[in-house]
Amino acid sequence: MEWRGKPVWIMRRTPEQLAGLKKIENQLADPNSQRTAYPTPDYAKNEVRSIKPEVFVAVGICSHLGCSPTDKLAAGPQPSLPDDWQGGFLCPCHGSTFDLAGRVYKNKPAPDNPEVPPHMYLSDNRLLIGEDKKA
Ligand code: FES
């Protein structure tokens, strides 16, 4: 899936993964997505960065130099990740880490959370990327 030529991630998160988001909030640079360089629409300015808590939608581009972070969904200690890792994404070029809401960890090269594109649900199971108002 792409939006304006950029890759878009769409991921269904489990209840355990959603619970993990709360555990590491104090390690994040902008947990409530208040920064504006990479926009988060108002409807995703919450702790899960989404309309439906379980469905995460974001542009899969790192805010440092534009690489694509790779998914590291398994929780637990592993190379290049903190011991209390709850699942998330790792940018391989310079080591920025993001949680499963795309929120960047503190003191990493990436300054901001990746963008959340405009999106809306046309029905319970139909998601439209690129627009967020009914025409
Ligand atoms: S491009 Fe992601 S950390 Fe450098």
Give a description of the structure.
This protein is mainly β and 135 residues long. The chain has one helix at 15-23; strands at residues 2-3, 6-12, 55-59, 70-72, 88-90, 97-99, 119-123, 126-129. Helices cover 7% and strands 24% of the residues. A hairpin with a 2-residue loop joins strand 7 and strand 8. FE2/S2 (inorganic) cluster is lined by residues 62, 64-65, 67, 91, 93-94, 96, 109-110. The site of FE2/S2 (inorganic) cluster has 10 residues, from loops.
Number of domains: 1
User: Whole-number average pLDDT?
Assistant: 95
CATH architecture grouping:
3-layer Sandwich
Q: How far is the first residue's CA from the last residue's CA?
A: 22 Å
Which fold name corresponds to the CATH topology?
Rieske Iron-sulfur Protein
Note the main sheet. Answer: 3 strands, antiparallel
CATH class category name: Mainly Beta
Keywords summarizing the entry:
single chain, 135 residues, mainly beta, Rieske Iron-sulfur Protein, three-stranded antiparallel sheet, 8 strands, globular, binds FE2/S2 (inorganic) cluster
Topology, element by element:
Layout lengths: L1 E2 L2 E7 L2 H9 L31 E5 L10 E3 L15 E3 L6 E3 L19 E5 L2 E4 L6
Antiparallel strand pairs: 1-2, 2-3, 4-5, 5-6, 7-8
FE2/S2 (inorganic) cluster binds next to loops.
